[in-house]
Amino acid sequence: MHPSQILEAGSGLFTVIDIYKHEIISLFKGEIIDAVEADKRAKQNHDRYFINLLDGSIMDSMHTHCFAKYANDTKGTSNSPFKNNAKIGLDDDGNVCIIATKRIKSGSEIFCGYGKPYWKKHQ
Asked: Per the database record, which ranges form the SET domain (predicted)?
């Protein structure tokens, strides 16, 4: 990981190869938790790596090694000159992943949107 180009965003996810539009960049991995545990962690402000899953459970990637969690959102709290070039979606097997929304050149940082509810809570 390298520092993100977005100020105060921490580490960022960068590609060392060219990535094509619609290509899966990385899978999310994490601990699957229920709403009760998620609420407990959120009250402790440990919910920055949550992903809501289709079955109502939540994946928490905070303490899991996975590249996907380092993709930052350009629409966050800073006034970033960058634009998102990927999105969070599902692969053909139903796994949560980051998918390129346009061609991304080698050496570029991967950016994907977190959604308005995320930023409403974390601003």
From this structure: 10-115
